[in-house]
Amino acid sequence: MTEHTRTLTNGQKQAIDFAPLLVFFVANYIWGLMPATGAIMVTTTIAIAISWVYARHIPMMPLVSGILLMIFGGLTLVFDNDIFIKMKPSIVYVMMSIALAIGLYTGRNFLGKLMGGVFDLTDQGWHILTLRWIGFFLFAAVLNEAVWRTQPTDVWVSFKVFGVLPLTFVFAAFQAPLLTKHAIKADTDD
Questions:
Q1: 3-state helix, strand, coil in the chain (%, to 5)
Q2: pLDDT digits over 18-49, tens only?
Q3: Closest CA to 99 of 109, 87, 89, 90
């Protein structure tokens, strides 16, 4: 059984995460939003299946986002109304903010559990980082709402594919001083 279980490289993870978005962008450019919605639903399902078959693991965030995509994408196609697919990112961002806030309120650090293998921070560092991500996700939700409600669909699709991702990377990069300040140093005496 272990011969079938592999660890995905960062490049493989990124390809699995971003291929559906690129297919969405190209399909929207060629055929429009409704076929693009169907295309992202199919490619997301394939990406999740590849992740399961290859690594025997589906990360929680892509799974939840994929389920919501099926719901909102399905509503978009059934009702022939693009409002559902356009609202989906905002709902995901708000849900992520709420989940992180509930974690802080209940004394469970969901962000620390999610990223604990990548960063080793003090409790205060995780608390501050979580508050910042809550703020970022709320900002991204408001920004998505502003873009889809005021711009043509093609602009919103471009923003979804080529705007949100760079904003997320820039925000994450600006967290480096916090990560450095609150990093738990490895004990060299052991």
A1: 80, 0, 20
A2: 889 999 999 999 999 999 999 999 999 999 99
A3: 109
